[in-house]
Amino acid sequence: MRLEDWHTHNECCHHAIGSIEDYIKSAIKHNLRTIGISDHFPYEFLEGIENIPYNEYAITLPEIENYISTAEKLKAKYNDDIIVRIGFEIDYFKNQESALNNYITPIEKTLDYILGSIHILNFFDGRGAWGFDDSRFRKDYKFYGVDKVYMFYFQTLQKMLNSPQFDFDIIAHFDLPKKFNDIPNNKEIINNEMMKALELIEKRNLVMEINTGGLRKDCKEQYPSEIIINEMYSLDIPILLGSDAHNPDVIAWKFKKMIKILKRIGYNQLAHFNKRKMILIEM
Ligand SMILES: [Zn+2]
Ligand SMILES: [Zn+2]
Q1: Can you list the domains of the chain with their CATH numbers?
Q2: What whole-number distance in Å separates Cα of residue 176 and Cα of residue 133?
Q3: What is the pLDDT of residues 98-143, one digit of tens each?
Q4: Which numbered ligand comes closest to the C-alpha of 56?
């Protein structure tokens, strides 16, 4: 089978190495069937992000046009070699869906898919927003404690899944709070919140990303864990693969190993997106 990588970044977001073309070339070299271009959607119009170094987190609003037109040109250029799909990874911020939609609606028709993510939490306790997967915010992670971060993350994820205004296709790195290998103490209560999120994913017919970026982090494990993938399988939640590459060298990172694990669990199909429509392909 030929693999597909649906989660890749590039220099447009100001913290990844390499041009969009470098990622496409690497994907061709890896003999992929499809590469999804999914850089970080802009943040600068959001409220309450004063603490966040958002200029280095994402594309800026004026850069959107160039991002899309460059990707479209490359899609045509490499048409005989690989399928190029164009998307965004978009962060969910509670109660800011309409601000977000002001900028998404005009470009919606050009997009093949949207990854929905949470990288930033705000407890609204006066400390402000913070990026829980950014090592520069480790003091905040320690301030709140592991269990509280996990709890709040999964509750925020439920809000995202319950928001019809937040329109997306794929949940990215579902259990991201484990990135720095922080293990929760009260696993039962966190599992409970996690299961609620999984049921919402199933109800909304969304796709879950199996993100191999986690294998390169302190947790040394894909997002989500095998235990969670088993739960997803029993809920019949469709999946696809993402490397979360911020460097062209890690395109399709450990995908072959991942496919073996997924097949052992029982999965035999992967999701594919074209203009926001999902189909399943055999793996
Ligand atoms: Zn990034
Ligand atoms: Zn992400």
Answers
A1: 4-282 (3.20.20.140)
A2: 7
A3: 999 999 999 999 999 999 999 999 999 999 999 999 999 999 999 9
A4: 1
